[in-house]
Amino acid sequence: MRYPHGATVLLAVLLAGCATTGHEIEPRPLGAGFRYSAYGPPFDPGPEYWALAGLDMARRFDGAHPETIWIVSRMHGRGTQLNFPASPKDPLIVGSPADENEAALTLFDRLGVRVWLQIEPGYAPVEELIDLILERYRHHPSVIGFGIDVEWYRSTSPDEGQAVTDEEARRWLAAVRRHGSDYRLFLKHWLIEKMPPTVRDGLLFVDDSQILPSLDALVDEFAEWGRAFAPAPVGFQYGYPSDRAWWSRYDDPRREVGQAILDRVPNAAGLYWVDFTLFEVFPPVAEKPVVRLPEKLPKFEGLAPTPPMGWNSWNHFGCNVDEALIRETADAIVASGMKDAGYVYVNIDDCWHGERDAEGFIRPDPKRFPSGMKALGDYIHAKGLKFGIYSDAGWKTCGGRPGSRGFEAQDAKTYAEWGVDYLKYDWCHTEGLSAPGAYLTMSQALRDAGRPVVLSICEWGESEPWRWGRNAGHLWRTKGDITNCFDCVVDHGTWKSWGVLPILDRQAWLRRWAGPDGWNDPDMLQVGNGMTAAEDRAHFSMWSMLAAPLLAGNDVRNMTAATRETLTNREVIAVNQDPLGIQAMRHRTLGSLEVWAKPLEGGDWAIAMLNRSTEPLPVSHDWTTPPIIDNEVSKRRLEGVYTIRDLWTKEARGDTGAPFVAEIAPHDVIMLRLKEKR
Fold first, then answer.
1. Entry pTM
2. Which of 190, 296, 322, 623 is the most exposed place for a label (fewest CB within 10 A)?
């Protein structure tokens, strides 16, 4: 007993369709779903029900992402029992004969349901539990972090639990982040004094107060919890049987109670209905089956084994696009050597649209594209290039043209008839939509239309598409729009655009999600759009290190020789297009110097030394202190002696047997390729 301290249709569509940096506390997207335990519901309806329950809860709140607290260990004597087979060292930890989580987590991966893995530790060692659980399940993109029910920490009696110290919280968070640098830790109790006194960064604080006389009393309790930990995110479990007398009077208690919490708690980041009563508000039995598992996902696989390369109209031309511009651009891509360097997609962004015809089919603007899109696509294809187009998951595009919401199948059929090879799919005017659902819907529509199309998920990173995007598309945006400056943020009032460095700072912890046929997309290139030659070089180098899509955004008809040389540097592009597809890691930061390392095929390494400052920066880099080790993705380390080649000067620079000494110009980069001496 805990005492106070003071989408059925949606999943049917989804599953049938599948048939700031530093120490600031970053806000996280609202998660809404349920708490699951083996002892909560009277029986387990299976993974499909739980996925449906999460999606059905999330659709009740604008912008919410389906999310669950999934209990993977429960009290067992003085210790805990895991609900999967394990070989623990400590005798207070015991395993189970079968894995009770794998099937659900696999389905959650496919549908974009986020998961916290929670324990009831008792006196068992928390750090060993963290390692056992995350070693087993960290390969699941649905897993976003680890949770500890503090009521059962060093206690065998509910409602007690030993208070967590700051040192313990830091140590546990560090243990969790050894398995995933983006993971968070949540701590749950109903007493504020059981939480760490000052540590906030990286934590979510969950309150499960119950036995309250009314909704107002519950919200008062939760509001006090929110104030105690602000601005850190907080979450809430509700729907307990002890409060049924009042919540059962509401028509939609999950939504009405949850909205009351959101209205009073500005830092609320998680709403979880408990499984004790979930069947009452969301019965698991329907008259007809509503869930059908697909044999495979709709995405056309194998279209992006390396990051896509091409050109997009938006960064330089915005809405000023027409047929003549696109034809001239295709000509220039061939004549400039860009095609030979690997740039193959010619992508028209927003504002090409006219109106829908009487049957709902989209037509191009007849004044801007008088020959029609089929003829334009044929022209592009005749050049040995590929044709890309733009739409939006909402009612309207960001530029106010007709969006694809409700017309996905018709638009996909139209794109196939036009010969489209690439679709950038934006996220404006999408009120009430689930991002994973919307992108899976378009992915299925493209599949049904029959023409293989690369799907670019342009959702701006708001719903963590790196966790679910690979199921639907081939690349996914990780942040808002880029602007043509090296180190700035431009505030447009209701949205912001970002310079190269602020976007780069978002990428390091996302590397484990990137790889062949699924790429983190920090946005299109601004090379040639007004930055200095050094900034262009650094921008292009870092995007290549990130294994990012390389989509030029300049006027390629009129670019300078310096811009062309930057965009067509074959040795830098080879790093980006390396078949391993491993995103670089930030090896170390020393003041304004960042050293990034990227494992390459054949045992090679790419190294980028970035000067973030506006002053020249002398560098003396020792290759062994600290050693370059990739524990997260490739499991490789740089050891032995390697020859060094500078990819911009095209010169040999000795070997790693001695420190690397150089001076890096302001906002510039040195990019190297290391090859082991044989």
1. 0.74
2. 296
